[in-house]
Amino acid sequence: MPGTWTTFRELLLPEVAAADRRRRGRALEDALRTAIRQGRLPQHTRLPSSRDLAGQLGLARGTVTTVYAQLVAEGYLTARHGSGTAVAAVAVAEDVAPVSGTATTRWRYDLRPGLPALNAFPRAEWLRAVRAGLGALTDEQLGYPDPAGLPALRSALAAYLARVRAVTTDAERIVITHGVAQAESLLADVLVARGHREIAVEDPHHPGTAELLAAHGLRPVPIPVDDDGIVVDRLAATGCRAVLVTPAHQFPLGVVLAPHRRRALLAWAADRDAVVIEDDYDAEHRYDRPAVRTVQTLDPESVAYVGSVSKVLSPALRLGWLVAPHHLLSSIVDRKRLTDLGNSPMTQAAFAHLLDTGGYDRHLRRTRVLYRQRRDALLAALAAELPRWQPVGVAAGLHVVVRLPEGTEDADVSERLAAQGVHALPLSGYATTSAPFPGLVLGYAALTPARLVEAVHEMAKYSSI
């Protein structure tokens, strides 16, 4: 990288040379971090090798290697074997003001919920699974796929879901989908074809889900959520014969559907001949105790169970599943066939291999530790700098809701933080009627502990609470 020698010398050498000889490693670390945060080193900029930069600055190579490793750990740099070291995409100039609501927004600290640590994706293991899965496919399986899904994956999923989530199923009841969004779209289309015109949803809930259901012909009817989950008595007072719930870890409040509410929900379904759609979106991420079993296992003929790899591996895979009651199964498979002719057998075969060889379990074990550390770092920073902001919900998932002091306008807080480059969404934005309290919905999985601590420090400076 000879062309960058002058650039990096001019950028870094003054601060490094001015430091005491014993502190030059720390000075280099500080100079690189500042240059990245201020945008003087843009995203994806390739850095010199440790040997080259050490030569430029008159440092030991081991010093530069240690600095690079520290900034990789903090999320400022990325390092891949054979590709060198580069500025990470999450590091954004401090003086770039974000434009709220636009696709080009560049956030200094993006605390959106729902994203896993994308840099933790098991690339090497996935590549091995792709090769192994492709090798296992027959020539015939490279043609148009079974719309219900690759038999090998459906079998592997049936075993996995039974073992990990106590789902009552076999391979024949599983339909492979392009994520939970398609699973819910298929269910909505089938329900509309059978005369449904509305569907109950938890309130608060993900607005994208309500938008999807409405686009497929079902009017969302909001049902309040309290500390025990969805209020089934309010559900029973509607004319709905379908409901979408997140019982293991309600989104966004993080509460668990209580046992008496589970029984009441299934009694309502039996009385109305209704369908319960159980979105088990992040139940595999539980940090203080095992997750509760699915509602589906109590009544497989009333509950349609949906899940995906989006919160465990990556949303980019567009891979999910639907465990259907028998009376809906054939209609769902027909709808899937008419929609897209089925998912790619090659992606399905790779995921089946990952399940069969334990790779998926190993990745989950790694990310549970990672996300627990990040959640703990976020909560510790909040307790130290914003003690009036109280966490709500169980220790699970990829986000936490913090309750703001009564009388606070959470949308105003969110806007003030956005002006400083902190993307922290207000709880009121997830409510159809009114949020149960003012709060912020903070995703922590995609940021390192150091970055989360920095984010809370910025929030404490600008929140005015």
TrEMBL record:
UniProt name for this protein: GntR family transcriptional regulator
Gene3D superfamilies attached to this UniProt entry: Type I PLP-dependent aspartate aminotransferase-like (Major domain) (3.40.640.10), Winged helix-like DNA-binding domain superfamily/Winged helix DNA-binding domain (1.10.10.10)
The HTH gntR-type domain, residue ranges: 22-90
Record keyword Nucleotide-binding present: no
InterPro entries xref list: Aminotransferase_I/II_large, HTH_trans_reg/aminotransferase, PyrdxlP-dep_Trfase, PyrdxlP-dep_Trfase_major, Tscrpt_reg_HTH_GntR, WH-like_DNA-bd_sf, WH_DNA-bd_sf
Family: In the C-terminal section; belongs to the class-I pyridoxal-phosphate-dependent aminotransferase family.
Database matches in CDD domains: AAT_like, WHTH_GntR
Species annotation: Labedaea rhizosphaerae
Keyword terms, alphabetized: DNA-binding, Pyridoxal phosphate, Transcription, Transcription regulation
One GO molecular-function entry: pyridoxal phosphate binding
